[in-house]
Request: fold
Amino acid sequence: RVLRDERDRSFAGVCPFHGDCLEGLASGTAILERYGAPLDALPPGREAAELIGHYLGQLAANVMLTLSAERIVFGGGVMRCEELLPFIRDSASRVLNGYPSVGAEAASLERVIVAPGLGERSGLAGAILLAEAASARAGRS
Reply:
């Protein structure tokens, strides 16, 4: 479960199993259901990006604390909203409350919580590199 934002109490969530889990509140499907459009298609403004950032920041903080992650890469359709990443960092910083030294301020999370280096091409580029590596291994056997 995620900590619900008070402004979001009326939204039940879209997860067929849990309703208001992270997927039910912050997925592309949840955003479409809540706002009627993808996050990057909404008029610029804080509310939608801040709300989704609130939920994804909790995820980032939990990943950092559970796995001691040095880098968390957020990609996919929801991340097409350019104003989202600072809200994720801010939310993670609030959850961490200075616990690990890296979480003291949202600005310090700029090197930890990032977008994919190759943007939307990252998945395809990664798949190609994995295929090349597998092919090279197969050629050696």
Remarks:
- Residues 46-67 form the longest helix (22 residues).
- DSSP finds five helices and two strands in the chain.
- The helical segments are 22-26, 28-35, 46-67, 84-96, 122-140.
- The first strand starts at residue 72 and ends at 73.
